[in-house]
Amino acid sequence: MTTIRLQHEDFDAAAEVAALTRARNDVGAVVTFAGICRGAEDGEPIAALTLEHYPGMAEAEIARHVTEACTRWQLKGVTVIHRHGRLTPGENIVLVVTAASHRQDAFAAAEFLMDYLKTRAPFWKQVERAGAAPTWVAAKTTDDDAAARWDARRKSREAAE
Amino acid sequence: MKVLYFAWVRERIGRAEEEIDPPAAVRTIGELVTWLAERDEQSAHAFENPKIIRAAIDRSHVRPDTPISGAKEIAFFPPMTGG
Fold first, then answer.
1. pTM score
2. B19 part of a folded domain
């Protein structure tokens, strides 16, 4: 079961977990990752983040990575919800829920999906600070490195096969 | 073909989308970036560092050497910062 939603509205992580596990007994592990808007970036307080996205491509790109996750790990269900628009500190930004029979698959798939969401899903964050013009968040090379290690794992696995 | 711009690429160019009709000599994404950058000052500013510009054709990521023939929708944007 796969659910992908892009929305401005908030989400309820507990309700999403319940929806993935309801009326079934083959799920033994659920991993939930929620990304939340911090009150400061680089030590400077922020007023809000505004997330711009590419409608149509964002859904397609997330779906491609969910499909890839399902080929790498034994998953019983995946939910990805990404918010857009203006979000203030403390608000939810993104939710990834992975359900599997065993925890290793659920943990790995959730981390894989987040690493790719950071670097491949067409979203851009703009930071608002009191008394200053909004600025675009620069991409972090550490995020690229985090995503690249999954490519390296796939290559080494393919080489071994 | 339709071209879309996002984030600071959109801001620098001053519009979110437009219809373009590049000459036949413009064959790849990289060549299209060069052609667009030569149009005006705003575009030159948006594409001043082509290496950091990301592109998509029909809603899939592509590299600069990807041919643009047959593309319906091409998008240019900065490195992504979602999640």
1. 0.92
2. yes
